[in-house]
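hi! just following up on the protien thing from before. the input was this:
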Amino acid sequence: MRRITILHLIPAFLTAASHAGEVAVELRPFVIEKSFPATALPSGDATVLKLQPKAWTDFKITQVQKHGAKVTKGEVLVRFDPEGIDQKIDDARHSLTTLTLKLAQAESDIKIAEETVKNKLDALRNTATIAKEENAYFTHTRRNANEEAAHQALKHSNQLLENQREELKQLTLMYQADDITENTEEIILTRQKDAVAAAEFAQRMETLEHKRTLEVTLPREAKTLADNERDTAINLKKAETDLPRSIQLSKLELESLQITQSRTKKDLAELEADRSLFEIKAPSEGWFYYGQLENGRWNPNDAMKTLTPNGHPPAQTAYATFVPSTTKLNLIAFLDEATARSLKTDITGSATLAGREDLEIPVKLAKLAGIPNPDGTCRADLTATWPADFIPTAGITPVIHLIAYQKSSAIVVPTKALTFGASGWSVQVKLASGKPEQRSVKCGRVSEEETEILSGLEAGQVVVVP
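and the predicted 3d structure came back as:
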């Protein structure tokens, strides 16, 4: 087989042979370079700003720094309108004061009730006993005595009237026996007639009183005393149940007040804690960015919509990130599976920035994920040695250049010259007679349009390219 003499290495494509459909096989350096974009992100010192309130939900922005702003220590990053929460805190404090006073009053009332319930029950028992005794005495003794007294009074009144009439009768008979009635006798008779009239009136009144006593007064008093005995017994029985129950209910109400007070204290504490979220200041010199760093990606899109005056960032969601000026920035990239498989950790390379191509930024692949993400990409973490005269900021996107594979002397053919069949990969080799022959080969690594051949070809041979 005729060999072709190689005068020098060709850096790009293989040297063409006698015509465009043929390439001469030669030994030359073979390099696979991988280039991909990466993002400079903080290594871990960044502070994610997230609204995580315990109770308050209405956070309306009144002031916010611009995305990417450089700030000094103590400078306000975000300020929210506190009017609503301040009013809520005042209301909670007022409610807590009221509850504290109600609790003190309730505790005092319960203490007094417990101390006086025995006395109240004793007084009611005494009242019930007296009512029972009074009714019994009236029923068995005093009523009969009063009736007897009424009869006796009426009898006495009748007797008195009869005596007065009899005395008038005797005086009249006595004075009629004389022929002449003296003035003194006339006076005595008149006086006696008055006495009779008075006795008659007294007898009529006594008769009425006797009737009323027997028919009205004594029956009414009997009913009153019986009702009083019944009512005092009922009141005693009710009090014996109600007074202890009222103390128990008061204690339950006291517990409810204590629970309400505890919850109000908790609500107030949560509101006061949430109040600290209404003004966020920079803890040090650094940069303020919209959005968050999550899984190695910077996502400012949603935050851009809400971080405006009168905007309302959602709760429980990171809305901004503060990066201290002293934070070390590393490079994060997400590679397709083919690129990720072609790389190994600890390889070095360089990064370039559009517009500052003069900068040399050495990089090193520090970590490479072995399992793809759900989107099919693999995360790559790189460290960078930043130039002394360049201050990097989070979010810049340099292009990474890494040598994934290199060989100082290799046989390489155009990938389109390869065909795959039952016996594997093969190429057509042009023989000295000019006729082509199918030759089996073992393939190595692939770079863009070229494939490394590990065996089956030798330098000097000519490969036919379709």
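Residues 207 and 435 are 167 Å apart (CA to CA).
The first strand starts at residue 22 and ends at 24.
cheers
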